[in-house]
Amino acid sequence: MFSTFLYISCARSTSDMDDTAQPSNATVQPAQEPSEPTTEPAQPAQEPTTEPTTEPTTEPTTEPAQEPTTEPTTEPSSEPQYTYPRVRFTLTWIHAGDDMDLHVLNGTDPMLRNTANDCHYENCSNGLDWGVQGEEQDNPILRQHDDTGTGPEITTIDQPHDGAKYTVYVHDYPESLFEFDHNVTVTLTVDEVEICSVSKNVFAENSYVAFLELDWDLQLCTSL
Length: 224
Prior knowledge:
Blueprint: H1 2-21, H2 23-26, H3 47-74, E1 87-93, E2 100-106, E3 118-119, E4 140-144, E5 153-157, E6 165-172, E7 182-190, E8 193-202, E9 208-215, E10 220-223
Antiparallel strand pairs: 1-5, 1-7, 2-3, 2-6, 4-5, 6-9, 7-8, 9-10
């Protein structure tokens, strides 16, 4: 009977030892829980890298580049561009040896011939002061004179004054070698475009023949 009691007590002491050993297993599981928060805070580090790189690169490069290139190029193009001289009178003839002289008058009165209002070979190689006094652009100048060939003789005006009217005569200079009827042509060019061309027969030595008239304001050429 004593031996049986001893066996039971020994068995309880063994089971008690097993019960005390189990808590050692419970201490292992809580050690795995702190591993979860180490992965989550790593994700917010990616958010600030994408947003500030895209926004400031697009806005400042497009807007200021287009404004200064268009405005200054359109305004000066609206102003008229002229090739000077704007007016050119040209005299030509057929037979060499017949001296023809170009006369351009500042007005329409025939009595202006051989005055300060008549541009010809004797007084106009350096120009005459017509139109606005002291202004050179509205002055005529004899650019080319020919007394042995068939021309051309050329008189130009850079910029005629407002209200200007010009009359063109041809003088058959006397004592020339050719004394017969002679076909002569005067051509008017404005802004490098031929406005009119008039041809006539000059049949008398020392004669003045009216060819054409130019009304500058109307841009009108009239054959006389």
